[in-house]
Amino acid sequence: MLRHLINKFGTTVYAQIWESRLKLTDLQTKKSFDEKPLVAIKIDKKSKPILVAAGNAASLNGGHDIVITNPFSHPRSLLSDFTVGEKLFQYALKKILGNKLILPAPAIILHPMEKTEGGLTMIEVRAFKELAFGAGARDSIVYQGNELSIYEIEFDSLKEQMGDQ
């Protein structure tokens, strides 16, 4: 009940995804994360992946025990690694929303900017929506179309326009 009340005050985040760029913008504050969609991962002795760096900083962390990966790079689809993509979204959201103990969950508009010829499959739409929920969203939609103006976006009307995803 308390979480539901806190979430009513949450912001909306517009997430644009390219293979070589990830841009998340908080529509309330206009604060933005606009970096390469890279993640540097170190595998510990127990084979557990540890996030070392993300975004532009990830490209500076190469080494023999560190793997740099792009979760949005695949020849056929924009989303290639769900788990790493989710970690990258969590990192980017913390950068723009802060790292407070009690933070309202944002509504996220995911906008794949490329590799959408012929439209996204329902599997791709669901994967993107689940990516947002796994990163901490209270609600999410996958938008397909022309770039949106961050000054004119209204989540509920856009969700109604997109119909049932």
The gyration radius over C-alpha positions equals 16 Å
What is the chain-wise order of helices and strands?
Answer: HEEEEEEHEHEH
Strand fraction equals 15-25%
Q: Please state the overall shape, judged from the principal axes of the Cα atoms.
A: globular
The count of DSSP E runs of length 2 or more, i.e. the number of strands, is: 8
Structural class, by secondary structure, is: alpha/beta
The first-to-last residue Cα distance is 26 Å
Assign the CATH class: Alpha Beta
What is the CATH fold-level name? Nucleotidyltransferase, domain 5
Give the name of the CATH architecture: 2-Layer Sandwich
The number of helical runs is: 4
* Number of structurally distinct domains: 1
Strand order of the largest sheet: 3-2-1-7-8
Major sheet description: 5 strands, mixed
Helix content: 25-40%
> Would you identify the regions where 5 or more consecutive residues have pLDDT less than 50?
2-7
Q: Your description of this structure?
A:
The protein is of the alpha/beta class. The chain has one domain (2-34, 76-162): Nucleotidyltransferase, domain 5. The chain contains four helices and eight strands, in the order αββββββαβαβα. The protein has helices spanning 2-7, 82-97, 122-134, 155-162, and strands at residues 12-17, 22-26, 32-35, 39-43, 49-54, 66-69, 107-112, 139-142. A five-stranded mixed β-sheet has the order 3-2-1-7-8, sandwiched between helices. Strand 4 (39-43) and strand 5 form a beta hairpin. The longest helix has 16 residues, at 82-97.
